[in-house]
Every structure is written in structure tokens, then in C-alpha cells.
Amino acid sequence: MADNPKLQQLQEAILSGNIPQMVLSLISYALDLRSSDIHIEPEENRVRLRFRVDGVLRQIVEYPLNIHPAIVSRIKIMSNLKIDEQRMPQDGRCNVTTKDGREMDLRVSTLPTVRGEKVVMRIQDKSRKIPDLPELGLQGRALKDMEEALELPNGVILTTGPTGSGKTTTMYSALMRLNTIEYNIMTIEDPVEIQLDGLNQSQVHHEINYTFANGLRTALRQDPDIIMVGEIRDRETIDIAIEASLTGHQVFSTIHTNSAVETLTRILNMGVPPYLLTSTIELIIAQRLVRKLCQACKVPTAPHPDVLELAKRALANIHSQDEIEPEKIQGLVFYDAKGCAECDGIGYRGRLGLYEIMRMNNEIRRLLVQGAASLDIEKAAIKNGMVSLEQIGIIKALKGETSLDEVYRVAKRMEEY
């Protein structure tokens, strides 16, 4: 990492006190490392600079406290924030073009701390293309279910997962498959993360009461075929989404739950009657992101016996036979990476998605109407071929795409049935 010319430029700018050069260098270097966020954190005797790369924070450099106010002011000027306001948090955004011609959108957030102002910059690389569904990590039965759901004329498709698990990218990827001249696609987002041709994208503004529910209601008057709502946060939004589906529209949205089945429970808890749920929701996608093993330095490894036992038990419960070759299950060879120059000594490079996809069927609909427990619904979904996050993670670990440690970092263990 130390011999990267961008890092050297950054260090030289710190030493010379060249503030504009330093800010541009740190953004440019963050792009080179494929970072999603830049954290600038004042501490007692120094300021720490960290980048989030593949979902994990890495320390890059430190710089003296005396130049921190100038750096914060520079970033505030770039993003149209108030320089003299240091007691209140502020949010802004700006467009930056680096010296090598890469254009990006920065979302800037400042927060007053006891040591000074902390700054976080979220990077949205405008030159980045939206990957197609298989490139994101969808495969086998999950990909087939997703493609079938996209062909339906109406219905609700929900994506769930924690913040930063790639939900918006998955929805964009699905919309790009439907983005043809015949369809009017409307999106209501907070904020609009990537601007795409062919999509009519609108950004909500809570301060003027332009909310997801208001935006969705307006979108229905714009003669849409497909509507994407950034997030379902309340009963009003889910009600309008269901109404849109019943009137012949395809609706995409995200919701915060831990698994596909828990999404149904969450919506029921919002007060939506089960009969409306069964007639509108077509597909629920639960997803996580895991780091990809560096292909240059990965080696076969023997996992801890307890972890190996967990993996065997999870694989034994797979009902969908087209997911994995039997010889791979018998061999159970997993991989790890020691770190090399290719991956900056980390052992991982890039990320891929783990997808748990639950396609609604008549058995699940019947259980919902009967008020069955979520455990019974999960059993029915697995019997119908749903592959859990843990199971698909283990399959990808067997293929050498990621490690078992990464899988269990993001996916909870299945309970035995």
C-alpha cells in the first residue's frame, strides 16, 4: 500500500500543508481502493483518516490536528455547507472530477464531536456500471425465481437487508432488465443514488413533507408501468404500494428485516391484512454482502471442526438439487487467503452478494391466511426450494469465492427442523 503514488501524493500534501491538494488526493486514492466511505476523525493529538473498503474500515494515514479546521472548511465549501457553523451537524453533496477524469458524487456529513468536527464522505462513482443480476451473485434457483418474478405484469417485489448490503444496487439491476421503450419506470428515492437514463427518478424532501407515501401517490398519477420506492417505513407507504400492485403495477421496494420470512411478519405487524399480502407480494429477497477471496493468493484450508459441522448440517437441508455438485459436498474443501500485493495484504478483493429468495406460492399463502408461525412459513419456503443465506454462502465458499469466516460474519445459522 505504501508505494502507491496516490498515497505518496496524499502524504506529501499533508507535509506541505497544501489543503486543496490533500482533499483531492484523498478522494482520488479512495477511488483507487474502491472505497465506499471516507472517515475523517479528530482525536486527542491527531486526526485519523480511514476508508471503508469492501465493507470494512481501514486506516490510511494520520495528520496533525492544527490543519484539521482548514480541511473541514475546504470540504464544506465544496459541498455548500456553512463554514462558520461548527456546533450543529450538516449534510451536503457535491460533484468532484479527479485529475484522471473520473467523475463522482460525494454525500458529505459533518458531526460535532468533543475533539472537533468529524466528516464522513460517501462516494458514488458515476463511471461505475450497474452489474447484471448474475454478476451480483445471483445463481441457480434464486436467479430463476427472480427472472420469473420480473416477467409478471404486477405484484410487489421486496428487498431486505441491513444498511449497506446492496439492496438499491439489486433493485437498479432488476430495473435495468425492464428498462425498455415500452415501460414507464418511476422511482421515488432518498436520495437518488445513481442517475440512470430511461428511469424517471424523484428525490423525497422530508422538510417540505414530500415523503415516500406522497411521492408514491403522485407517481400513480404519472401513468407508470413500474414503480420503485426507496424504502417502506410505515403503514401508509405499504398501503399505497399494495394498492398500486392491485391496480396492475409492478412495485419494487426495500424494507429493514433480517430474513425473507421475517419481512412477512413485519408487514403483518404494520397492520396489513393477510389476504392483501397474499394477493400482492410475489417475491422477497434477503441479501448480504461478503468479501471475495483474492484469487491470486487463496489456498485450501481446514476450517475449525465446529464450523465444518455447521456447514455440513446446513448443506444437508438444501432441497434444491441444482445448487451444488454432489462431489463438492463430499470433498468439503474450503479456502482462505493470506494476503499479497494484488489485494494489499488483506486477502480479500471486491464483494459479492448472498441472496435468499422466497417466491410466494399457494402453500405459503395458505399458511399466512391461517396465521401460521414464521417458522412454519420458513419450513414451507425451504421445502419449496428456497436456499438460505447461510446455505448459499457455504456453496460460494466451496467454490472458492469467499471464506466460511465471511459467511458466518453476515449470515445467522439455521435452526434445525
Task: Summarize the topology.
Layout: H1 5-16, H2 19-32, E1 35-42, E2 47-53, E3 56-63, H3 68-78, E4 90-97, E5 103-113, E6 116-125, H4 133-136, H5 140-150, E7 155-160, H6 167-178, E8 185-189, E9 199-203, H7 212-219, E10 226-229, H8 235-246, E11 250-255, H9 260-269, H10 274-280, E12 281-293, E13 298-301, H11 305-316, H12 326-331, E14 334-337, E15 348-359, H13 362-369, H14 374-383, H15 389-398, H16 404-410
Parallel strand pairs: 7-11, 7-12, 8-9, 8-10, 10-11
Antiparallel strand pairs: 1-2, 1-6, 2-3, 4-5, 5-6, 12-15, 13-14
As a whole number of angstroms, the C-alpha radius of gyration is 23 Å
The general outline is globular
Q: What fraction of residues sit in β-strands?
A: 25-35%
Helical content (DSSP H or I, runs of 4+): 25-40%
How are the strands of the biggest sheet laid out side by side? Answer: 9-8-10-11-7-12-15
Query: What is the count of β-strands?
Result: 15
The termini sit apart by 48 Å
Helix tally equals: 16
Structural category: alpha/beta
Average pLDDT value? 89
Which residue ranges are poorly predicted, with pLDDT under 50 across at least 5 consecutive positions?
A: none
Description:
With 417 residues, this protein is of the alpha/beta class. It has helices at residues 5-16, 19-32, 68-78, 133-136, 140-150, 167-178, 212-219, 235-246, 260-269, 274-280, 305-316, 326-331, 362-369, 374-383, 389-398, 404-410, and strands at 35-42, 47-53, 56-63, 90-97, 103-113, 116-125, 155-160, 185-189, 199-203, 226-229, 250-255, 281-293, 298-301, 334-337, 348-359. The longest helix has 14 residues, at 19-32. It starts with a helix and ends in a 7-residue tail after the last helix. The model has no long low-confidence stretch (mean pLDDT 89).
